[in-house]
Amino acid sequence: MTTLSSYLSITRDAARWQTMAAKAPDVATQTKYFQDNVGKATNAADLVNNQRLFAYAMKAFGLGDRVYAKGLMKQVLQQGVGSTSTLAYKLNDPNILAFAKAFDFAGKGAQTTSSATLVKSVVDQYTQNALETNQSSQNAGVGLALYFQRKAPAITSVYGILADKKLLQVVQTALDISPMTAVMPIDQQASMLTKKINIADFKDTAKLQTFISRFAAQYDYKYGDASASGSRATNAILLGASQDPGGGVGASLLLAMQAYRSF
């Protein structure tokens, strides 16, 4: 299956895929612990010092690779988000800012984690992150496409792309921009991206999907079928009737290339 056909198969039946991800033993176990114990964390220190709670929350916000940064994240939470001068804003990382806004102990106090809305939001994000991680282990392009679909609509400027390595990878791949441009001054990178994309387009579902289709076509062009080889057997079983008629490979590849040419 191509990157695009795999991505489309998941998005067409998103609820079923998310349910499967939520029921995976490791995900279900960690989710139950989070739900049962997060309300006990009444301040930043409580959350950060509970390794399981902290790791779960960090992974939910795409910060799983920074669970070691306990001191930094504790400062982020203690300072809150009441001013743009706080650390959450200064770090210029949209995922850290979203984390700080969710666990706003500075603004909401001990009641922060007693919110059913917060718990559901974090659990949903953790489950989606688990789904994306699982797909990435089979085809990294599919994981990136799912991540971009989830995160891109919330971007407010090209700096939001530059601050998120996954979003940036999708944009660089779709537009055939060399990763080496990362050595350029940040303002030059921002200027270059501004000329190539309109951030507002990512809030339009049709335009967002067209861009993701362009990314998928470019990804497969660059990395070939080998990028998806590990996912074929698994996806063939899980997707079943949700596969494209006739196997979907030829039709999906054609769709991807048409999207690429029309963008």
Textual characterization of the structure:
Helix 10 packs antiparallel against helix 11 (140-151). It is built from 17 helices and no strands. By secondary structure, it is mainly alpha-helical. It has helices at 3-12, 14-23, 25-37, 44-49, 51-60, 70-79, 87-90, 94-102, 105-108, 116-138, 140-151, 158-162, 165-174, 186-196, 205-223, 232-239, 249-262. It has a single domain (3-262), classed as AGR C 984p-like (AGR_C_984p-like).
Strand content: under 5%
Which class in CATH terms? Mainly Alpha
CATH superfamily: AGR C 984p-like
CATH topology tier name: AGR_C_984p-like
Outline: globular
Query: Average pLDDT, to the nearest integer?
Result: 87
Terminal CA distance:
23 Å
Structural class: mainly alpha
- Overall helicity: 55-70%
- Enumerate the spans where pLDDT stays under 50 for 5 or more consecutive residues: 226-263
Computed over alpha carbons, the radius of gyration is 19 Å
The CATH architecture designation is: Orthogonal Bundle
Secondary-structure element string: HHHHHHHHHHHHHHHHH
Total strands: the figure is 0
So how many helices? 17
Task: Outline the biggest β-sheet.
Answer: none
Tally of domains: 1
Structure described in brief:
By secondary structure, the protein is mostly helical. Helices cover 68% and strands 0% of the residues.
Secondary structure layout plus pairing:
Elements (H helix, E strand, L loop, with lengths): L2 H10 L1 H10 L1 H13 L6 H6 L1 H10 L9 H10 L7 H4 L3 H9 L2 H4 L7 H23 L1 H12 L6 H5 L2 H10 L11 H11 L8 H19 L8 H8 L9 H14 L1
Helix pairs in contact: 1-11, 2-10, 3-5, 3-10, 5-10, 10-11, 11-13, 11-15, 13-15, 15-17
